[in-house]
Specification:
The chain is 36% helix and 29% strand. It is an alpha+beta fold and 346 residues long.
């Protein structure tokens, strides 16, 4: 029996990367070469993806981005700006081969730590943080999917329709930029700087224009009041970003735009739609996502610290202080902070 071989691969330079992955049911857009290209192009991160092969055949991978920052140090992340990106591998023993190789590279490269996001093989280790994760099983039978939705959610969908809200499914750059306006408003409301506009332009270039995602924009007349960005790869779709104008909250456009996103994913033949991670302290968002009839599970973020040589937990007290401060700042100033800061935050 031949031995498994570990390789370091940059998927941006590997023309067959997506083809190798697509047969694995657990792969998502975050594993794809397109997402790696987006992060490398926007923020200058270096993809160092660990793969297993046997006699030249692909047997699994563990994607990692190397982030180098003057302000926040040098580290590995699996995977930057991804809600979750677990390994694709058969069995704990094979995962350990990849994991040990990541730690070896981290020590050689002088990383402060390496962070894993949603790695099932590390669920017994101390988590840095735990998030909720909702997944909807999709079906071509829209009535079946609607029957799983909470009654209050279904009423909100009907209210939005009655109020005259329309939803457009788009893959144009202009649609992404229309969404970005709402994104800036929503981030300020949550006490966070928005991602740079250049990130969303690159998101369109490397992902959405390649037919690996779409925007769904809700409008009343000519005014866009809510929207989502949904990305997909293989069998799986992922709700990545959502935003809205709070002045139009009474229209319940968020509910309709979510429902249209879910239906679009089902029409395109995807098996599952992830609603992304949710902070366990965000009761309102948890209730909203619970209403779509999916499954709520929990994902761990694990951080291995190379100084202490163990998994560590990190407090978020400073984060909450900054969020309260950011809520008071003008949107344009927050955009400047996002342009400067996000590449250091990956």
């Amino acid at each position: 029996m031949s031995a498994l071989k570990i390789n370091l691969v940059n998927p941006v330079e590997a023309s067959e990367w997506n083809n190798e992955l697509v047969s694995y049911g657990e792969c998502t857009i975050f594993h794809s070469a397109n997402w790696a290209r987006l992060l490398a192009d926007t923020y200058g991160y270096r993809p160092v993806y660990f793969t297993l092969s046997e006699q030249g055949l692909f047997k699994g991978c563990l994607p990692v981005m190397e982030v180098v920052s003057t302000f926040t140090g040098k580290r590995g992340v699996c995977l930057s700006f991804s809600d979750y990106c677990g390994s694709i591998v058969e069995g704990r023993d094979n995962f350990k081969l990849l994991f040990d190789s990541v730690l070896e590279l981290g020590r050689i490269s002088g990383w402060r730590y390496v962070e894993f996001r949603g790695e099932n093989f590390l669920c017994n280790e101390m988590p840095r943080k735990i998030y909720a994760h909702h997944t909807i099983e999709l079906s071509h039978d829209e009535e079946l999917m609607l029957s799983r939705v909470r009654k209050s959610t279904a009423r909100s969908i009907k209210k939005a329709v009655k109020e005259g809200v329309k939803v457009d499914i788009c893959n144009s750059l202009q649609a992404v930029r229309d969404f970005y306006r709402l994104h800036c408003l929503t981030r300020r409301r949550h006490g966070l700087p928005p991602q740079p506009k250049s990130f969303f332009d690159k998101l369109h270039e490397h992902v959405i224009s390649q037919r690996l995602g779409f925007t769904a924009l809700a409008r009343i007349g000519n005014v866009i009041v809510a929207g989502v960005v949904c990305l997909h790869f293989g069998r799986n779709a992922v709700y990545k970003y959502g935003a809205s104008d709070v002045e139009f909250q009474y229209l319940r456009a968020n509910n309709l735009v979510f429902w249209e996103m879910i239906k679009e994913c089902a029409r395109n033949g995807f098996d599952f739609c992830s609603l992304g991670r949710t902070d366990l302290r965000d009761e309102g968002l948890l209730v909203f996502k619970d209403g779509w009839g999916g499954m709520r599970t929990y994902m761990h973020y694990n951080r291995f610290d190379f100084v202490t040589n163990r998994f560590t937990r990190e407090s978020d007290e400073h984060g909450r202080y900054y969020r309260n401060w950011f809520k008071k700042l003008p949107v344009n100033f927050l955009r400047i902070l996002g342009d400067i800061g996000y590449r250091h935050m990956g």
